[in-house]
Amino acid sequence: MKPVVLCIVGCFWLAHCCGSATTMLFHGHQPHEWKKLYFVHHWPVTVCKMSEEDCKDPPMYWTIHGLWADKAEHCNKTWHFNISKIKDILGDMKQYWPDVLHPNHTQFWKHEWDKHGTCVAMLESLNSEKKYFSKALEFYEKLDLNSYLLKMGIKPGSTYYQLATIRDALTSFYKVTPKIQCLPPEEGEEVQTIGQIKFCFTKEFNLINCTEPKAISYLAHEERFFDPEELSICNDTLTYYPAQLQLHK
Ligand SMILES: *[C@@H]1O[C@H](CO)[C@@H](O)[C@H](O)[C@H]1NC(C)=O
Ligand SMILES: *[C@@H]1O[C@H](CO)[C@@H](O)[C@H](O)[C@H]1NC(C)=O
Ligand SMILES: *[C@@H]1O[C@H](CO)[C@@H](O)[C@H](O)[C@H]1NC(C)=O
Ligand SMILES: *[C@@H]1O[C@H](CO)[C@@H](O)[C@H](O)[C@H]1NC(C)=O
Ligand SMILES: *[C@@H]1O[C@H](CO)[C@@H](O)[C@H](O)[C@H]1NC(C)=O
User: Fold this and answer.
1) Residue 74 and which of 8, 34, 43, 172 are 20 to 30 A apart at CA?
2) Which residues are catalytically annotated?
3) Domain with 103 in it
4) What ligand 1 atom has the least distance to the C-alpha of 76?
């Protein structure tokens, strides 16, 4: 009998005490805790490959996917995206942060703002739509990933790369290791396809190593906007960097 009694008392206590703590955590006004920023590039051809949508002429350069907090999403549901706030930067937005899948980019920007912008906006330097989107464009320009890959001779096309070749090239240039994500091989294929390159920053905007491969399961779920298929951390194997859509598989 004793264990049962203990359990009854214990469970009652747990429900009482920790139930309310849980309520506070999920319903209270706790700040969303996050520690670092991810600046995410994606490769449009791969984005198209992952989608059922019709993609016409995806850009042949890495474009912006988003500027994210590592551990927070949808932080302020009352802060609505308003395209007028970024009207001064629409030219650069369309070129460097396009919605690869749809001709109208507004939904994509709104999605990024709602899900990620409202979280990183807790930093004073990102606390408006204009600051958020402008800062991402600035990261893009400073990192200059496209020129750097070309300079290292890493070009899209029919050659496969060892993942380590790409990763080491990036690490030697940026002095930090980014996170590289791939689309796993499809049935009958041997090679993974490179899809995303993420750089990690402190809240003070210093580049840092993106370590901790242990977070794989979390990562796989962190961005589902381009479902159905998902990107995951690349394996150390041959990697395809596609230059064009295979129109039929
Ligand atoms: C959420 O957004 C609203 C509307 O912009 C703003 O007034 C409010 O201060 C924001 N709340 C937080 C916690 O940032
Ligand atoms: C959107 O922003 C513009 C420019 O700041 C402002 O005039 C307009 O009222 C805003 N629209 C909404 C729905 O808040
Ligand atoms: C793009 O989509 C937005 C929101 O869905 C809509 O308000 C806007 O009118 C569209 N723009 C064009 C050019 O179709
Ligand atoms: C990496 O390998 C694991 C185990 O074989 C597999 O489940 C995963 O899908 C692979 N990831 C990629 C991007 O190919
Ligand atoms: C990133 O990691 C590398 C190798 O582990 C190390 O040499 C380098 O100093 C680190 N860079 C930063 C900015 O932490």
Assistant:
1) 43
2) 65, 112, 116
3) 35-240
4) 1
